Amino acid sequence: MPSAELAIFVVVLLALLFDYINGFHDTANAVATSVSTRAMTPSFAIGLAAVMNFIGALSGTAVAKTIGSDIVMPAAVTQHVLFAALIAAIFWNLLTWYYGIPSSSSHALIGGLVGAAVASQGFGVLKTAGVIKVVAFLVLSPLIGLTVGYLVMTALWWLMRRQTPSHINRVFLKLQILASTAGAFSHGSNDAQKSMGIITMALFGAGLIPKFEVPFWVTLACAIAMALGTAVGGWKIIRTMGGRIVKLEPINGFAADLSSASVIYGSTLLGMPVSTTHVVSSCIMGVGSAKRLLAVRWAVAKQIVTAWVLTIPSAAAVAALTLFFVNLF
User: Fold this and answer.
1) Largest CB tally within 10 Å, which of 109, 208, 227, 241?
2) For residue 166, which of 291, 251, 255, 284 has the smallest C-alpha distance?
3) Helices 42-57 and 27-37: crossing angle, nearest 10°?
4) pLDDT of 117
5) pTM of structure
6) How many CB atoms lie within 10 A of CB 197?
7) What is the DSSP letter of 215?
8) What value does the mean pLDDT of the chain take?
């Protein structure tokens, strides 16, 4: 196999591997609240999340186009740059998964892409307006999630104020299944498209496709990889998000899932990549805050926020270092 074709093959393989790891790293985004409140058994919840992630991944390509064409100039990106970016993102995902930290796969991938591109050709290769827009949305989306979670939970408390706790639990145990289904769909609709964008960038940069359009086989392959990864399940992060941030009842779980699904899918429709992990975590914090501020374990929240802040620069540094060694050898 010629070296150019081999390089593209390796990049595609790594992008699918990142998608798979993203799936099991982010399984908690869709199922943690339902498992915590016992609305669903863990095996059923993960199976449902895998199916809905697959369906969600087939729903569009707007986010993929943003990742592949609005951050770095596609024609200027080599296969080596994409290789280094993916290695950095995979490394950060595995590291945070190992320690049970719900960090952002999106931040890791974007940080890796920016770090590798800058290390290769300097800051001129970046599309400044696109980078600012994407980073701004990555920062704002958790704040939006926190606010939406608080407002939805406050509204639900008001609507159910005359009902008994047992009645509330019976109703929202069933409704939480629907909310989790929507959450898994929204996760697939946003996160799977990030690998689609990287693969399409590789194909476009190599001249294998005439314009930046995501081929159907890329969409299907990424959807399958995401679903398979989700089916494996990232149990450490499920425990963190399901119980360590705030103690959840069925009504809280429903509010968190409904809020996060709305914010994530709204971002997908706008073509904006967001951290589904950050949005879900912040919605859980918002829901807990509506009950009372002390209901949130802010020490755990602080650890999560620290990981948020460190992810982009850390992934960028790893990508730059990886590119150095790739070019060296």
Assistant:
1) 109
2) 251
3) 150
4) 93
5) 0.87
6) 28
7) -
8) 85
